[in-house]
Write a structure and sequence with these properties.
The structure holds 2 protein chains of 2 kinds. Chain A is α/β, with parallel strands linked by helices. Chain A folds into 3 domains: 238 residues, 3-Layer(aba) Sandwich (Rossmann fold), CATH 3.40.50.300; 185 residues, Rossmann fold (3-Layer(aba) Sandwich); 71 residues, no CATH class. Chain A is 33% helix and 23% strand. In chain A, strands 6-7-8-3-9-10 form a 6-stranded mixed sheet, with helices on both faces. Chain A has a 6-stranded mixed sheet with strand order 16-17-18-13-19-20, sandwiched between helices. Chain A has a 4-stranded antiparallel sheet with strand order 2-1-4-5, covered by helices on one side. The longest helix of chain A has 16 residues. By secondary structure, chain B is mainly alpha-helical. Chain B contains 16 helices and 2 strands. Chain B has a two-stranded antiparallel ribbon with strand order 1-2. The radius of gyration of chain B is 23 Å and the shape is globular. The two termini of chain B are 16 Å apart. Classes of the chains: A alpha/beta, B mainly alpha. Chains A and B meet through helix 1, helix 10, helix 11 and helix 15 of A and helix 1, helix 2, helix 11, helix 12 and helix 13 of B.
């Protein structure tokens, strides 16, 4: 039904993406962050204009591009966004009819009675009985989902149309999710098609009919029947076979412990302990919400934990304090490379040199003068080391490509020669060349004696980088993999049942595993 | 989300070409540099060019304009504006959008000083210290509400500004309180090289502020807090402390500026002058973003902006001595300046 490309300036974000959704089908769309999913949805929602030559067809009717919301509505194409797009302190009928109110011809008044009847009719089609005068904020999560669906499908003629759910299940609990999908099923039984975009691979495999996988703006697999696939193989398709730029190298781990974590309790992870050796690279992985990310953020100082102490060198850092800044972490030699580089990592409008030297302007500079020499020296050294392009220290960071921004972010912390480097998705949405340079730089840091923690869902990265990988499932470390790692083993341990990752080279973890024994 | 999509950007062909032919790269880079730097030059100095052109036009149409006394009156009269604009800059640079109370704090401090000296017979210096302390106290209250409590800056400072105007009116019975000692006037009116010494206070303040931002760790931290609080926090910058300090320092600048201005005027400012000053303060700070460092708030640009506006208004009044000229000019320039700076900013990010 859609055939599209999209470029932003020189960047082609979508390349000849072809998406076919059969009538009455529940079609899943998956891909990593930055693969182009959001761009695709925004084209279908009429936010972006696709490149010339694309087409969008619904029930045999070709839409003019860019998609115009009113025309899309008439053709039966609608999008339910991540947070459902409901206004909590308005009633059910007002929410459903928003943007569609029919005003009286002369009075310009809204005819409440007519509107309410229309809403009741739509809800009846969904088989839900909700009081249309109730405020949406007072409803249960599933009723709210029903309201969002009702709004999306009210203009569809029965037996046609397409509803796109863009991460709509994120806010729902597990139980509510099951009922949500019952609802979606009933929409499909009415003849409409559904495109479900989700990070929850489990639900994609369980509920959809077919799945399309998007990677780097290209469809890698279009419409695989869901019964013939599973989470692990979808993950492999999403990540792709990275061009093999790396093989494992010998571990740099030394005998001395560089960092120790005791009794970390954050989100619903409790009692997490870890001993990290100098030069050791440890991966933290797991599904969305499994706790791996929360642990990394707590250790990097980005998130306040409920309890726990991080010891780096001879400094104890309590992790349960509310802090105005990460000063204490930085002083102890802890560096945190955040996932969202332009929100947490770098200031886009300021220059490469300014961003790169920020954590050290106070410690290396005098009180009244930062001093230009060390800044120039440090920046030049890092630009060379990580091959940052263009090699201009005065370029605003926002004008660099994603890969080069990521390099600047890593350089910002590596330049401080940290004792503990905590990273969250260090190679997300960067190109092959940048990935190569970043992995080299991380290894270089480890060789220099820095302890490294990598929180990532990218099994291929973890396999080439890590000495061990801790796999989180439902707020616990359920497996610890070490020795010769490969991506498949890690994926298997992430999705498989707890404890069944035991293979000759690996040791299956037990539930209250403490730190490490090599 | 668009950012995420953009991060996909890759140009293997370009990268490969540069790798293959390293000799070509410096040349192409040099060419690119000269093109951007020309454009850069134009956007940095455009306003200064307009300023020069304005002076030429005025001088041509009204010969009286080109006279030493013209320049004296332009340069001598702007000290209050310079201090207020720098006070506004303090908070705007750390990302507080926008402190509307600055001109009222200024009037408030001037009233405190004059009332204490004239009505209560205090010595000038103790009264000046109390006036500055009062202005800083207002900064502390603003900071508590905005930084600690998280109330919207515009609403807090709008309310605070109106409140202080009211208190100033009450203290002064809505009159200009004059009768400061002539000796005190010397701190503002002493002649140095043909201009009043208060002009040089402004110059020193602006240069010190520019130095702070460009060369000190504190200034770098302020820039980053203004650009992104989260990035700063995760880089070890004490974000809230810097925001708090900016409000207090803004109060200090308003207070000190008011003391000097009271000396120059020989009395307090009326509450109504706060409203009159509000727009010129904003116009010059925003105009400053189109000067020297395009798209960025900066002290020297703001300083030039103040004199650009003063020249424009002075000339227009000379040509056509109408009261309505000044609001039309200030308002128009503010809108144009903000538009230009938004466009410049969009180009760099």
């Amino acid at each position: 039904m859609a055939h599209l490309s999209k470029s932003f300036g020189p960047a082609r974000v979508l390349r000849e993406v072809d998406l076919q959704i059969a009538p009455g089908e529940l079609h899943g769309l998956v891909g990593q962050n930055g693969c182009g999913k959001s761009t695709l949805v925004k084209i279908l929602a009429g936010v972006y204009t696709p490149d010339h030559g694309g087409s969008v067809t619904v029930d045999g009717r070709a839409l003019a591009l860019p998609v115009h919301p009113l025309e899309a509505r008439a053709a039966g194409l609608s999008v339910v966004h991540q947070h459902l797009g409901l206004v909590d302190d308005r009633t059910v009928w007002e929410n459903v009819r928003l943007g569609r109110y029919r005003a009286g011809r002369f009075s310009r008044r809204i005819n409440h009675k007519e509107e309410k009847q229309a809403v009741e009719a739509v809800l009846a089609r969904l088989g839900r009985h909700v009081d249309v005068n109730e405020k949406v904020g007072a409803l249960s999560a599933e009723d709210r989902a029903a309201i969002a669906i009702a709004r999306a499908m009210q203009d569809h003629s029965p037996g046609g149309g397409l509803i796109i759910f863009d991460e709509s299940t994120r806010a729902l609990t597990k139980e509510a999710r099951a009922r949500f999908f019952d609802l979606v099923r009933s929409v499909i039984d009415g003849g409409a098609s559904v495109l479900l975009i989700s990070h929850q691979l489990e639900e994609i495999v369980q509920v959809t009919d077919r799945v399309t996988v998007l990677r780097d703006g290209v469809v890698v697999e279009g419409g695989i029947p869901s019964v013939k696939t599973d989470e692990a193989s979808l993950t492999r398709l999403m990540l792709g076979r990275h061009i093999v730029t790396h093989s494992r190298v010998d571990s740099h781990a030394q005998d001395r412990t560089v960092a120790r974590v005791r009794g970390l309790t954050v989100r619903s992870v409790s009692g997490f302990d870890l001993d990290l050796k100098q030069g050791e690279i440890v991966g933290l992985t797991g599904l969305v919400g499994s706790g791996a990310v929360a642990v990394a953020e707590a250790l990097g100082g980005a998130r306040q934990a409920r309890s726990g102490v991080l010891t780096v060198g001879d400094k104890d850092i309590p992790l349960d304090r509310q802090r105005g800044s990460t000063e204490e972490f930085i002083a102890a030699g802890v560096a945190f490379v955040a996932e969202r580089r332009l929100e947490q990592g770098l200031a886009a409008e300021l220059s490469v040199a300014q961003n790169l030297t920020l954590p050290r302007v106070r410690s290396r500079g005098g009180r009244l003068r930062i001093g230009g020499a060390w800044q120039a020296e440090e920046t030049a050294a890092m630009i060379k080391k990580l091959d940052i392009r263009p090699p201009d220290p005065h370029q605003p960071v926002g004008t660099l490509s994603g890969g080069n921004q990521q390099k600047v972010l890593l350089a910002k912390w590596l330049a401080g020669a940290p004792n503990l480097l905590v990273m969250h998705e260090p190679t997300q949405a960067v190109d092959v060349g940048a990935r190569h340079d970043i992995i080299e730089a991380i290894r270089g840091a480890a060789a220099g004696g820095c302890g490294v923690l990598v929180a990532s869902v990218d099994a291929a990265d973890l396999a080439v980088l890590c000495d061990r990988v801790l796999v989180f499932r439902e707020d616990r470390v359920t497996a610890e993999l070490s020795g010769e790692l490969d991506a498949d083993t890690i994926i298997h341990a992430t999705f498989g049942a707890p404890g069944d990752a035991a293979e000759p080279a690996q040791r299956a973890g037990d539930h209250d595993m403490k730190g490490v024994v090599q | 989300m668009m950012d995420a999509a953009r991060q996909d950007e890759r140009e293997p062909a370009v990268a490969a070409a540069e790798l293959a032919d390293p000799a070509r790269e410096p040349e192409s880079r040099r060419r690119r540099w000269s093109v951007t730097s020309e454009r850069h030059f134009a956007s940095r100095y455009a306003i200064i060019g307009v300023w020069a052109a304005m002076i030429v036009v005025y001088a041509a149409t009204e010969p009286v304009f080109f006279h030493v006394r013209t320049f004296q009156s332009i340069f001598n009269g702007q000290q209050p504006l310079v201090f207020m604009a720098m006070a506004l800059l303090c908070t705007i640079i750390v990302g507080e959008f926008v402190d509307l109370s600055v001109p009222s704090v200024f009037v408030f401090a001037s009233t405190v000083l004059a009332v204490l000296v004239v009505n209560h017979g205090w010595g000038v210096w103790p009264a000046a210290i109390v006036a500055v302390a009062a202005a800083m106290l207002v900064g502390v209250i603003n900071a508590l509400l905005v930084v600690k409590t998280g109330v919207n800056t515009i609403v807090v400072t709008l309310g605070m500004g109106t409140l202080l105007q009211g208190i100033s009116m009450w203290m002064s019975n809505d009159n200009t309180i004059s009768g400061m000692s002539p000796g005190f006037q010397k701190i503002a009116l002493t002649d140095v090289g043909g201009l009043q010494i208060s002009f040089y206070y402004g110059v020193v303040l602006v240069l010190a502020f520019a130095y702070l931002l460009a060369f000190t760790p504190l200034g770098r931290h302020m820039r980053f807090v203004g650009a992104s609080r989260e990035v700063s926090r995760l880089s070890g910058v004490r974000v809230d402390r810097i925001r708090f300090g900016s409000f207090v320092f803004a109060g200090l600048l308003s207070g000190v500026g008011a003391v000097v201005a009271v000396a120059a005027l020989g009395g307090s400012f009326t509450a109504a002058s706060a409203d009159v000053n509000l727009l010129p303060v904003f116009a010059s700070v925003f105009l400053g973003t189109a000067i020297l460092e395009p798209g960025r708030f900066n002290p020297i640009g703001t300083f030039i902006g103040i004199y650009f506006l003063a020249t424009g208004v002075f000339g227009l009044e000379l040509l056509n001595a109408n009261v309505w000229i000044s609001p039309v000019f200030y308002g128009g320039v503010l809108v144009v300046a903000v538009t230009i700076s938004t466009l410049l900013h969009r180009r760099t990010t």
